[in-house]
Amino acid sequence: MDEALDALVRGPAAGYADLGFARVDTHRGLRTGDPEVVFAAGKTPAQTVALFHRLRASGNRPAFATRASADVVEAVRAAFPGAAYTDESGTCVAVGEPPATRGLVRVVAAGTSDAAVAGEAAFTARLFGAEVERIDDVGVAGLHRLLAVHAELDSADCLVVVAGMEGALPSVVAGLVSVPVLAVPTSVGYGASFGGLSALLAMLNSCAPGVAVCNIDNGFGAGVFAARVARAARERPTRTPH
Amino acid sequence: MDEALDALVRGPAAGYADLGFARVDTHRGLRTGDPEVVFAAGKTPAQTVALFHRLRASGNRPAFATRASADVVEAVRAAFPGAAYTDESGTCVAVGEPPATRGLVRVVAAGTSDAAVAGEAAFTARLFGAEVERIDDVGVAGLHRLLAVHAELDSADCLVVVAGMEGALPSVVAGLVSVPVLAVPTSVGYGASFGGLSALLAMLNSCAPGVAVCNIDNGFGAGVFAARVARAARERPTRTPH
Amino acid sequence: MDEALDALVRGPAAGYADLGFARVDTHRGLRTGDPEVVFAAGKTPAQTVALFHRLRASGNRPAFATRASADVVEAVRAAFPGAAYTDESGTCVAVGEPPATRGLVRVVAAGTSDAAVAGEAAFTARLFGAEVERIDDVGVAGLHRLLAVHAELDSADCLVVVAGMEGALPSVVAGLVSVPVLAVPTSVGYGASFGGLSALLAMLNSCAPGVAVCNIDNGFGAGVFAARVARAARERPTRTPH
Amino acid sequence: MDEALDALVRGPAAGYADLGFARVDTHRGLRTGDPEVVFAAGKTPAQTVALFHRLRASGNRPAFATRASADVVEAVRAAFPGAAYTDESGTCVAVGEPPATRGLVRVVAAGTSDAAVAGEAAFTARLFGAEVERIDDVGVAGLHRLLAVHAELDSADCLVVVAGMEGALPSVVAGLVSVPVLAVPTSVGYGASFGGLSALLAMLNSCAPGVAVCNIDNGFGAGVFAARVARAARERPTRTPH
Amino acid sequence: MDEALDALVRGPAAGYADLGFARVDTHRGLRTGDPEVVFAAGKTPAQTVALFHRLRASGNRPAFATRASADVVEAVRAAFPGAAYTDESGTCVAVGEPPATRGLVRVVAAGTSDAAVAGEAAFTARLFGAEVERIDDVGVAGLHRLLAVHAELDSADCLVVVAGMEGALPSVVAGLVSVPVLAVPTSVGYGASFGGLSALLAMLNSCAPGVAVCNIDNGFGAGVFAARVARAARERPTRTPH
Amino acid sequence: MDEALDALVRGPAAGYADLGFARVDTHRGLRTGDPEVVFAAGKTPAQTVALFHRLRASGNRPAFATRASADVVEAVRAAFPGAAYTDESGTCVAVGEPPATRGLVRVVAAGTSDAAVAGEAAFTARLFGAEVERIDDVGVAGLHRLLAVHAELDSADCLVVVAGMEGALPSVVAGLVSVPVLAVPTSVGYGASFGGLSALLAMLNSCAPGVAVCNIDNGFGAGVFAARVARAARERPTRTPH
Amino acid sequence: MDEALDALVRGPAAGYADLGFARVDTHRGLRTGDPEVVFAAGKTPAQTVALFHRLRASGNRPAFATRASADVVEAVRAAFPGAAYTDESGTCVAVGEPPATRGLVRVVAAGTSDAAVAGEAAFTARLFGAEVERIDDVGVAGLHRLLAVHAELDSADCLVVVAGMEGALPSVVAGLVSVPVLAVPTSVGYGASFGGLSALLAMLNSCAPGVAVCNIDNGFGAGVFAARVARAARERPTRTPH
Amino acid sequence: MDEALDALVRGPAAGYADLGFARVDTHRGLRTGDPEVVFAAGKTPAQTVALFHRLRASGNRPAFATRASADVVEAVRAAFPGAAYTDESGTCVAVGEPPATRGLVRVVAAGTSDAAVAGEAAFTARLFGAEVERIDDVGVAGLHRLLAVHAELDSADCLVVVAGMEGALPSVVAGLVSVPVLAVPTSVGYGASFGGLSALLAMLNSCAPGVAVCNIDNGFGAGVFAARVARAARERPTRTPH
């Protein structure tokens, strides 16, 4: 049995700490190369802070909470004064130095209403070790705005494309580039958008190959996936500027 | 009480014929300006032929059946030798001279698999009195194909845009033109397209204003609507060719 | 390459202004003939006001926001004192002189509870250049109320028919007229109306041809579409009053 | 304990016969006043015939099978030569003299494609003891056809209104009459009718009070309910013919 | 044309009053024999009070509002001091003497949580002219409670059976009686009850014939329907007490 | 007729007490061996307290309310000072000595966000007579945490496995053990979890045999079922500790 | 690390055989105490037979295939002449001596159309080591049939209750007994049963505690679960016959 | 304007060929680096062969059709004797030499019934330039089979994980590795799997980060995406064999 597998099974001894209300993966870095993330929905500020202390004590990767309420973010800020920082939506909070970057993720958003989800994706991808750039407000109803950034799209190692309503942007983008496109439907819309279902189904049915999909509003998951792709990518030959 | 209303109510006397299994609107032309259409699903060949005879006897507008099975089409052809004609999907059949045309409907299809629905829309719009032109296979994954026909799109009086899968084409088209865009979702796709639901929801949630939607695979309904818009439209100033 | 297409692609240079959080289409009028509309859901009052200033600066078409919260409407009113006006639902706000009208849109509502959506449609159609008249509270359960306005229905260039619950009104109206009928389902209802789904499905399945459908509660989209149809329509011969 | 209740509990001794594959309610007439009905879906011809023999042996009410395949109908016909009869859809089969009638049920169908379900309802209501009359092909898209039979509608003791597609007919009918309206959605339609869901939801959300709904294509259930209402109704004063 | 039909069409002259925001059916009694009901959802207290005044002015049937907010109820009470009364859920309010009763409706509720809907049904049925009795808390999980009232169930002219969760009660009741059973699903439940969908589907699929279904939580609709059935029923022979 | 059945039918005399708003099963212990449980959703504090008094008066089994609001819990605590106790979610409240235990239920939760539902299950199972132990935070994304408790899983008489999001834990657990696995989906998640639907469907489709499923968030139902299984189980031979 | 866990991880060496197209668990008996079952849907007859040979070679527990097509059953019969046997639906096939029984499972079916699923459950429970008895055709519409077998229901160690349509039977049964009730919805029904969804939702929302649910038509899963419960149950004191 | 963009717009001249029924992207390689793929659903054998000829004529990348019927595959084989090859499901067919490989994709399938979709993914990834290896039949119900291949999983550049039913495998795999996991739900299952919906929702809600999802049964899309990730990945340091 190889050592990694052995470590996996022997986990109870060394791989996590039991806090009573949660089991913290202190060796997760070993397993996946990424920091442990706290899903803060349903957790109290005190529980979240306790988890952050335990995670910070077991290494120097950043601790990172998603779906945090304002109370939780406030508590983390208070517990780690000056060291905590958040994304623009204010629902992600992290403590600790982000890793050095490798590879480039571009986060593309259809409308300004999609900015919160795009922000979560960008924040996450950066924390997971990728360089990140954003392109906002290039929805398909104004195609010339998208075409104007065409060359930039194809020069990333992975694209995260965020859209609500009819969710058409990933299909159009994927027809223009040869890099992997990670589509994130948002709950932006009303009526028959059914909380993002319309965008989700559209993205799953993209006629352009090379599109994979995350859960509705799941900027976090997209950020993790995209960072993994970008970090592992070869250096790209320098492109002539356009 | 004005006369039109009076005629409406007195309909039983003059406005339809009772065939036992159906009541045929013989004066429908008076009411809507369009030929009566037979929804042939669930009707026998004999019933459909009887309806055609009755409709043809009461005027000289074409009689027209949709959702016709092969048997029904065959029976109509046999009953009206040389006078019946069908669309390319073979599920629409008509007898009688189509009216003179006024206005232009362009039917735009995303993929070759959408051709049957596009054909039904084109066939119908022509029978309802509009000139019709088609543009096929201009899906959003190959945007340059669509941009190449950009000027043609904006010179129609009404566009019918047909797409399956993610149903993105109407949004992209509506962002390029200022004419009304009638979107028709098709059941082309698989898995989470759920028989056309993905395209339907996408089109209903179009971020581009000026899009209205028909039922899944309902080329007929789109053709009627588009013809009414086109027939009523003013002459357009001649455009410089491009 | 024709000039319109060239302008489309060269858009980045001249077609929009980058405000950081949004890209404003300043030349959209060129492309679609309509004013740019701000989808205000998820935008702050400050962002919306900034967009209005930029849009007003680039031409003299009205700027127009939909799905605006009370805060946003208030901020726009404060920024453009005396120049801003709203629809009866208070969720649409515009600044600037509406264009001259051409053609007639009639907005028909089934019940008084549908008035907000009907109001949004009427407000929008007027801003997009059509004359607008309204007919309220003519639901199918009191058919004589609808029959009483029968002749008026058929004298418009385009009808917008708004209904919640079972959404039957567009089918009944479409059987009475020969003009295009744009159906707008509303979320009025409870239980198995599922937020407007029942009316939406009913309208998509209308047995009367000549019906196209907008998203649930999407009075705005209906107004744009209807105005485009009406503006392009030929003068109609004067009808005898009834 | 009253006698009826006692009989209910003591049922095992006298109330049914155990055929091995089914328990036949031989005293059901006592309990509900109606004949036992065999739900033939999933039953073999032999099983159905056995059930019919047992039911006929225990009394002289008709035996009646619904959702019968052609094989089952054939087998019943063969087993009861000359005594079996079916509805027009050929999926209901009965043996035995129908009861004398009391009260009037009118079965109203929107389109000719709804005739099979309307036929099942009519067949059932007759077998459950009501007089039955039918009105076909009076869909809402041709309102004058419906208005022409307006007075007949209100002179029944119970109406069964059958419609597919948008299912609007029951709402319109219920607005015209003061008798109970039993709505039956059919699976007639395509695309977003989702097998009758659109009509079902529409009928459940009828804006006209006095509408109750049966399962999709459930003509049988509607027939039973309507017959019970009609049989129990008082004589109505004779109406002047119209 | 018979007189009733003529009156229907001539409605505009005499059949309703146009209040600007609503068209009030002042002659509805003529058409359906029932009082006009105001669907108060989305109406202001002032609008509702105005409708009540108009309705009261045109005859002496009670005016009746459903889905009324506390504000609306308060306003009606203030406008008609001493004359307004409500159901136990406080969402229905009426003004005016209820009609004399004829026939008996029994309203049966599965659990105490279903009482609000059962109350609306009972209140409505009484206002529409039926005698009403209630049986509460006889859910199928405690079958002896239901069997104890078995004889009462069968002695009504129409049963309204109200249940949430799995919605099994109407099936069990319909197996015990020979009177029409009107099933009303409620939104009582959680998780996979999906706001009453589970009970609704169960009731539509009842294996016991003689069940018809109303919309989720639609006690009002059930009350109207049941009252119409009961009012029209013949006197029943006195039953021996049990 | 055996005595139990006789008691069942004669229930009205002895089996329940009619409180006006509810019928209390005072003999339910006789029938099912479990305490009566009050579904407190939609009941007032006063009603719930009245039910508790009646239940406590008719025997010495604990009275137990689920889905109780904070008000209801407070009222019960006030009415039974010192005798009432709640679960960790604070939505279950009981009064009276729990029964002696027999058999062991283990409640396993995927994440800390699932703790409220797991707590309800544990609380219920204890009240229904089983010994209960909990294992928290062993989701499938950190498999070593689950493998570390592998032997404990297989030594229970019944497992309750609680998970939200993708609901994968029951399948993995069921592949490791030979005891019955009762899966409880929770509404933990967002976007396409649709309030727990994703976990529910996953659990119903478990590829590992020996899994049965409860309603979303239904810790109570799982606790009852698991306690019944555990109480009836034979003593298990002592396992060697691991 | 305890031995069971060690065996689990070292599985590759000893715990399964790699057939190329499948990995056969030859030591599964060690893990779960049950025979390996082949999910035959999508497997060829040759593949299934190969799996059976491998499973039979590694021990003497029976091999067992579910969801087998007629071709697969035929092939297994031919490969194991005289040793293969099937359930009454003909979709399950097994080879090898069933184990000795312990405990009693009763399989209760609502209608004769549910017999195939009930048969699969019974066949499976027997193969997994429980004694099995069946009670058929005791649907809730004929309650006296169910009450007649009341005492038998409560004397089993586990009940499997199978029903389609409204799926009410498990709720009614669970109110009568104190043993665990495993509910199996079937796809029997039409229209709004949506392939068994109505019964599934009803069972998940059962108002009677002590009900757990399996997938639609999943008699196999129910049989496994019930057998595990029954096998582990204590001897029950003999009941007096009734 | 950069050259790539210019080429995009000038597409009509050089970028595609118009075959009448389709527009073939002959320069698509320039745009995306991948071969053009024909979506063969709804195309005739003759159309597909014509497309293949045109694609083969414009370069030497392989032509590739998905969702091909047996007729289409047969026709392609006949048109390109000896040069056409298919995947194991027989629904993909290609002509032309596959490109040299770079990077490694591992395709992991839960059950043997998922093999067709896994095969399509593997076939596609190879055609799009990645090395491919498969791991079959490692579903979560037999965890030791999965743990046995643990090290192999983490040594790929991208994983495609295919599963039906509850779709739990991607979550478990993603918890074990640090490479991107592309999840493909299959329609394997029955009842409440609703054609793959259960697996799709589960995968979208994976609690393990680093999972992205493709459409149900969309092995093709997964293959394209995974190949793009793998081809772009850096050389990985050699791992010690295990």
Q: Could you walk me through the main structural features you see in this protein, from its secondary elements to its overall organization?
A:
Chain A is an alpha/beta fold and 242 residues long. Chain A folds into 2 domains: 11-95, no CATH class; 104-235, Rossmann fold (3-Layer(aba) Sandwich). Chain A is built from 11 helices and 11 strands. Chain A has helices at residues 3-9, 11-14, 28-32, 45-57, 70-79, 115-127, 143-147, 150-154, 169-174, 197-204, 219-232; strands spanning 16-18, 23-25, 37-39, 63-66, 84-86, 93-95, 104-109, 131-135, 158-163, 181-185, 211-213. The first copy, chain A, has a 5-stranded parallel beta sheet with strand order 8-7-9-10-11. Chain A has a 4-stranded mixed beta sheet with strand order 3-4-6-5, with helices on one face. In chain A, strands 1-2 form a two-stranded antiparallel sheet. In chain A, helix 10 links the parallel strand 10 and strand 11. In chain A, helix 4 crosses helix 5 and helix 6 (115-127) packs across helix 11 (219-232). Mean pLDDT of chain A is 86; it is low at 1-14. The interface between B and C is large, with 49 and 51 residues.
| CATH architecture verdict of the largest domain in chain A | 3-Layer(aba) Sandwich
Ends of chain A: how far apart? 53 Å
Number of strands of chain A: 11
**Strand arrangement in the largest pleated sheet of chain A:** 8-7-9-10-11
Question: What is the CATH fold-level name of the largest domain in chain A?
Answer: Rossmann fold
Instruction: Summarize the amount of helix of chain A as a percent range.
Output: 25-40%
- Pattern of helices and strands of chain A: HHEEHEHEHEEEHEHHEHEHEH
Low-confidence stretches of chain A: 1-14
Q: Which CATH C-level class of the largest domain in chain A is it?
A: Alpha Beta
